[in-house]
Amino acid sequence: MFHRSERLLLRPIWPEDWQGVLGGIADEGVVRNLASAPWPYDETDAREFAARPFDPFQPTFLATRAADAAVIGCAGLGPVEGSDVAAKGAAELGYWIARPYWGQGYATEAGRAVLEIARVLGRREIHSAHFLDNPASGRVLRKLGFEPTGQVAKHLSCARGHEVEAAQYRLLLDGVQSERQRAA
Asked: pLDDT digits over 110-136, tens only?
């Protein structure tokens, strides 16, 4: 499964991509904002991540610049904590962008591409969250149309070694409208 946006190509991650993954994510400023990536992030971590099988129903994509194939990050869908919402066609959006590409709109563009894929996969509800000390990610989620749920929950940050408060967001897709969308 591949997806081309204006500036990006999203594609499956292949084992030989481990160096590109390592080059983008082996940065404490990136990893500390992720739930499952450890710190320090090393070659073994990158090789294991790149070797994971591709799941077409919960895809994770390598985000590369279409112009020169530079690895700028990853974006994808994963399971939602709590099986009750997952059973209703929900998924969780996750992403990371390498530091040299911050502030250039790549997270929003990659997120928008993943949401298009989620629609094709028949997903009706997408969840996401950001650690409270990472407001830039909250801005990305709002640009993508996510609405804050008003809930803050503790999420594990492997890199930090403890749970961190995270703002919860939700986006309803195709034909399902939230109260705010109906009022508009």
From this structure: 999 999 999 999 999 999 999 999 999
- Evaluate whether 99 touches 28 at the Cβ level (below 8 Å): no
Which H or E element spans position 21? helix 18-25
DSSP symbols for 151-171: EEEEEEETTTTEEEEEEEEEE
Domain count, the chain: 1
In order, the DSSP letters of 58-120 are S-EEEEEETTT--EEEEEEEEPPSSHHHHTTTEEEEEEEE-GGGTTTTHHHHHHHHHHHHHHH
pLDDT tens digits along 69-93? 999 999 999 998 764 555 567 999 9
Element (H, E) at 131: strand 125-131
CATH number at residue 24: 3.40.630.30
Distance, in Å, from the CA atom of 176 to the CA atom of 184, rounded to the nearest integer, reads 14
DSSP 3-state assignment of 135? Answer: helix
Determine the length of the chain. 184
Q: Containing domain of residue 70, as a range? A: 3-183
